[in-house]
Amino acid sequence: MIQNLSMSEQLMYSTIRIECRTADNQVSTGTGFFVRFLENGPDFVPAIVTNKHVIEGAAQGHLLFTNSDGQGNPLNTDHISISYNNFENIWIQHPDPSVDLCILPMVPILAELYDLGKVPFYKAISTTFIPSYEQLSDLRAIEEVTMIGYPSGIWDSVNNLPVIRRGITATHPNINYNGRDEIMIDAACFPGSSGSPVLIYNDNGYVTKSGNVIMGTPRVYLLGILYAGPQFTATGNIEVVDVPTTSRPIAYSRIPMNLGMVIKANRLLDFNPILQEKLDEELNRS
Question: Across residues 104-111, what is the average pLDDT?
Fold first, then answer.
């Protein structure tokens, strides 16, 4: 029997922790999330979305999926580990070099896992959740936002689940911040959160721009993807501090300002023509 998951529970399974290792053995973590591209009724092309800088320079990448029981239920403590060499080069970069987005089509990954007898459990976010111009126009300057990911690599490693955080819009979601397809949010944004989906999630009603109160109706919009955040740098004189066995220089520290830069979700649609071209090539070969 398929487990009945609420919308918030489904969103918990919409992300994946991405661990990268460079050629000189430096390890970093970031966030990816599942998206349905080229949706046509029940048909779609699933892919993982993250930032270009998350996988930049990655000689090896590690993904950890949650296994399922074959009947549509997640097995939280049963994980499927999969690693790839030459990790950076298997991602499709956004066609605009200035847009910090890339995607990893999942069809080859799923085929590999199915061959191993594994059926991963995940929930891909529909591109129909990307708000239209009219929907954005009906938003207020201050809206509550939800961000799902792995800040500083923190996660529930036993159950393979992310951390959910909340904040507000720091700039109007219908206005391009500094003339780019971006907005700013007021939320605690730390390394590892890069690539996190930023959503408006109202599970029990909301208020429209005109002040109308919509009761009992959920609202879910994929506003965008977190990619950066300004930091305050505390500087001082460089001093050598004696410790029992070594001397170490003291330079400066960076303090997050609880602000995050978010690429608007409509930029995800730029991948559709690329995926369609690849799909057509596959069909022609077959």
Answer: 96
CB 83 within 8 A of CB 123: no
Question: Phi, psi (5° rounding) for residue 203?
Answer: -90, -10
| Separation in Å, CA 246 to CA 169, 249, 253 | 46, 10, 20
Instruction: Name 221's bridge partners.
Output: 200
Dmax of the chain from CA atoms? 69
DSSP letter string, 139-190: S-SS-EEEEEE-GGG--BTTTTB-EEEEEEESS-TTS-GGGSSEEEEES---
pLDDT, one tens digit per residue, over 1-27 is 446 889 999 999 999 999 999 999 999
Paired with 15 in beta bridges are 33
SS (H, E, C) 77-135: EEEEEEEEECHHHHCEECCCCCCCCEEEECHHHHHHHHHCCCCEECCCEEHHHCCCHHH
Q: Is the pLDDT of residue 210 over 50?
A: yes
Alpha-carbon torsion (171, 53, 153, 275), positive or negative: positive
User: What is the tens place of the pLDDT at every residue in 153-191?
Assistant: 899 999 999 999 999 999 999 999 999 999 999 998 887
In the prediction, which pLDDT does 283 show?
82
The residues, ordered by sequence, that sit 6+ positions from 32 with a Cβ below 8 Å of its Cβ are: 15, 16, 17, 18, 48, 49, 50, 54, 63, 104, 195
- Which residues have C-beta within 8 Å of that of residue 89, sequence separation ≥ 6? none
